Amino acid sequence: MATWNSRGLRGSTLEDMINHTNEYYRQKKLALVQKIPTPITPIKIDKDSSQITLAYFEKDSTVDYIGVVQGVPICFDAKECATDTFSMRNIHEHQVEFMSDFESQNGISFLIIMFTGKNRLYYMRFEELQGYIDRAAHGHANNFKYDELDPRYFMSAKGGALVHYLQPLNLDLSSRDE
Q: Which of 51, 132, 152, 155 would staple 121 via disulfide (CB 3.0–4.6 Å)?
């Protein structure tokens, strides 16, 4: 079983940026999005600092963030990739299942992927993710490349916050009232 300290601080830069952005959107009353903590059981605690030094994950987590944007439920996971090839092994089956179930309840699921080598962020809709999963199931490599991604869904950061990272949703709320 993986332990908390074996994973280090992967994704902390991206998550800090997302948290900053979510706080900005909350203050502007545009969205309310919360980080979902991963349930852990502490094994070792440093008595001097009261910090957890070793723990194990109690169960599989769902996604990193859940919230609502102007009445529309969203959930998403933040991923980082140091190369131009994103391995689908970074996305766990329980996360895909949760995102699929969320979509079936009229929510919007997506990934935010940071390509650290290019310092670029990508908003990947669940539908696009499912296409890569289906492709891998039919014998294609279990990954996708940076160059395959739709340029319309790349984002930038400004002042430590994602700039309009929810803009590409192009929400049509009229169909949700039916």
A: 155
Query: In which element (H, E) is residue 14 found?
Result: helix 12-27
CB 160 within 8 A of CB 17: yes
Does the structure show a pLDDT above 80 at 110?
yes
Q: What is the per-residue pLDDT across 135-153, written as a single tens digit (0 to 9) for each?
A: 999 999 999 999 999 998 9
Distance in angstroms (rounded) separating the CA atoms of residues 66 and 54: 27
Residues 6+ positions from 25 with CB-CB distance below 8 Å: 31, 32, 33, 69, 166
Q: Nearest-CA neighbor of 165 among 62, 38, 37, 74?
A: 74
Q: Angle at Cα 72 formed by Cα 68 and Cα 77, nearest 5°?
A: 55
Kind plus residue range of the DSSP H or E element containing 136? helix 126-137
Write down the pTM of the prediction: 0.77
